[in-house]
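Posting for a labmate who doesn't have an account.
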Amino acid sequence: MSQHSIGCICVWCLADNSAFDYTDMPKHESNPKFHALLKQMGEVHDRKNHDYTHGGNPYSNFEEAAATAGCSVDTVFAVLMGVKLSRLNALTREAKEPNHESLKDTRLDLAVYAALWASY
């Protein structure tokens, strides 16, 4: 059980069905955990967007990385996602405990990258 309160939508609480209060979700949402995760993805994106981007361009960091590496923005997204997938594979293949970022955080970052790439 998470140490957070009922209704918390942090990634740890979302993994624990008993820690999420589904009663405040709109009736049309057939998968409340999914919609809560989408909301959390938006929050993660907004926090990181504040730190990584400039000039009001939410993709400026990816575009600058592409220019620096001499590749396309698509390649930057593919590489970033590949790094996250490689990390997941390395940790799960050998059942290692992560030292820094949790597996759930890695999956969340991967989902955010996928959404950003799709929206680019």
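Reply:
Got it, the structure tokens are right above this. Residues 1-20 have pLDDT under 50 and may be disordered.
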